[in-house]
Amino acid sequence: MADAKGTVGSETEPHSNLSTHTLEPRPDGWIYKGFQVGRREIWYASPKMQLLMVALVCFLCPGMYNALSGLGGGGQVDGTVQDHASTALYSVFAVVAFFSGSFANKLGIKATLGIGGFGYCIYSASLLCYNHTKNVGFVIFAGALLGLCAGLLWTAQGAIMMAYPPEESKGRYISWFWIIFNLGAVIGSLIPLGQNVNNTGGTVTDGTYVGFIVLMVVGAAVTFLLVNADKVIRDDGSKVIVMKNPTWQSEFIGLWQCISLSPWVVALFPMFFSSNIFYTYQQNGLNLAHFNVRARSLNNLLYWLAQIFGAVIFGYALDYPKIRRSMRAKISFLALFALTFAIWGGGYAWQRQQVSREVTMEESYENEKIDWTDPKFLGPMFLYIFYGFYDACWQTCIYWYMGALSNSGRRTANMTGFYKGLQSAGAAVFWRLDGVHIEYNTLFAVTWAVCAGSLLVAAPIIFMKIEDTTSLETDLKYSDERPEDVVPTAALEEKRTDV
Fold first, then answer.
1. Cβ-based neighbours of 92, under 8 Å, separated by 6 or more
2. pLDDT at 233
3. ∠ Cα 371 376 382 (to 5°)
4. Largest Cα–Cα distance of the chain, in whole Å?
5. What local confidence, expressed as pLDDT, does residue 323 receive?
6. Is 412 helix (H, G, I), strand (E, B) or coil?
7. Distance from CA of residue 391 to its chain's centroid?
8. Helix 378-405 / helix 293-317 crossing angle, nearest 10 deg
9. CA-to-CA separations, 180 to 72, 187, 212, in angstroms, rounded
10. Which alpha helices (DSSP H) does 318-408 contain, by range?
11. What is the dihedral of CA 20, 26, 27, 30, to 10 degrees?
12. Which of 41, 217, 406, 434 could cross-link with 411 by S-S, CB 3.0 to 4.6 Å?
């Protein structure tokens, strides 16, 4: 924690930025009226409350989408239609997300999230429609629309998660978000599990899709309850760095400024690209290909539960106060590298013993798929659990690395846009590989190789560019804010007195 003089922990090295840890009264208005939760005070326009709200949106929208996708094939027997929809989704997502930081900065967090939540219920409705009409075109259109909406939603979410908390709490904020978000997938997974507990054959029931649609509509409505970033005030009275007077021109120029300020951030781009590619193999190459529908539903539930444990362990470890931030970055990287070879190595040992993709696609193989009553269920079930744990560790680390590079709401929105754009490009490529029916052994090998290779490329950034703190001067660069706009008045007076 930083004290009033700007020192961190027990270190006495002076900050180059002004202190933001001097308490002062909050403005008038109901959004700043505090209430006690245990020993802590929370107000509506506080980072914690806004993180809770956006986590609830993601609980009900992307969380339910993850539960549906985790069934393999979007709950269908043949995953081809979902492959085509996912390719459209992530192709549009990749383009939109790259520029969505500009949209979030110009339109505001609230409007961006509102637009973003809309596409999820349409996508679920398209799969319900497909159950009865086999209308592939509608599913693909819904996937593309969801790509547009999700690009906006996830960029706004990333800006909140990385820019709102103080530096010493970013890992915990990421962890809290990931817990609530993945509880959506966990609870969403209970819908198909309950609906299909006696169903050992093909497609999930209509009631499963209806349940997802209703919850996603509620999630989209919750977005209208948030406040914009310029209204948020932290515990110490400091504010989020945004553009006071953004224009479309200033925000599109801001994309270039974000890269020019830290050009070495491009070394993280391969990690961005890799961050969703493993879903294709895990959900379709493992869960859909080798398990019947009720076993897939149970696997899906356990997968998202494991994500919660991964987020808690890595999120809290990344904020461990007795180790300097730069050292925590190095340790987390080494842990992630070790997990990449331990978990995927176990996956290789299992995958090389499986039948070919061609065999799994035969109609007669449906009766050969693993049920939860089979003795051979436990091994791949635990493997699937570890895949879920690994996903949460990977995502938590990436968000923390980006948050360690900047505290600016404007820059984190742009970095999140780059992250989600490249992430979606990677997902689109791998869903397309599955759509053209690449052999599962090949899909597994390519996924593992790309993840491992991206870590090697990112290593220099993580080892050399993540510092123990980020200066206010760096965060304010290329914005129209001044220190007095974001730092508490008492802290400014303290700084002037010290000088």
1. 144, 145, 147, 148, 151
2. 86
3. 90
4. 80
5. 94
6. helix
7. 10
8. 40
9. 23, 10, 17
10. 325-351, 357-360, 378-405
11. 130
12. 406
pLDDT value at 136 more than 60: yes
CA distance linking residue 385 with residue 394, whole number of Å: 15
**What digits encode the pLDDT tens for the residues 370-390?**
888 898 889 999 999 999 999
Task: Dig out the tokens for 39 from the structure.
Answer: 């020993």
Q: Quickly tell me which residue has 């996508």 as its tokens.
A: 123
Q: Write down the residue that tokens 């993945």 correspond to.
A: 182
Q: State the first-to-last Cα distance of the chain, in angstroms, to the nearest integer.
A: 22
Please name which of 162, 171, 462, 466 lies closest in space to residue 318, comparing C-alpha atoms.
171
Residues in contact with 263: Cβ distance below 8 Å, sequence separation at least 6, in sequence order: none
pLDDT in tens, 393-417: 999 999 999 888 877 777 777 788 8
What is the DSSP secondary-structure string of 24-37? -PPPSSGGG--EEE
Residue 379 CA, distance from chain mean position? 28
Range 269-297 average pLDDT: 90
**Radius of gyration of the chain measured on its C-alpha atoms:** 23
Cα(113)–Cα(61) distance, integer angstroms: 11
141 pLDDT higher than 90: yes
Mean pLDDT, rounded, of the chain: 81
Residue with tokens 């029931």: 205
**Sole residue written with tokens 């999120």:** 315
Tell me how far apart the alpha carbons of residues 107 and 127 are, in angstroms, rounded to a whole number: 31
Of 196, 121, 112, nearest to 151 (Cα)? 112
Residue type, 231: K
- Tell me the β-bridge partners of 370: 291
281 vs 110, higher pLDDT = 281
The Cα 277–Cα 259 span in angstroms is 24
458 has a pLDDT exceeding 90: yes
Cβ atoms of 334 and 418 within 8 Å: the answer is no
Contact 50, 232 (CB under 8 A): yes
* Paired tokens of 438: 């690449």
pLDDT per residue as tens digits for the range 468-493: 887 666 655 655 556 655 565 554 45
CA distances from 138 to 64, 89, 128, 154 (A): 20, 12, 11, 24
Closest CA to 196 of 343, 68, 61: 68
Q: Which of 179, 290, 160 is CA-nearest to residue 234?
A: 160
Q: Which amino acid is at 473?
A: E
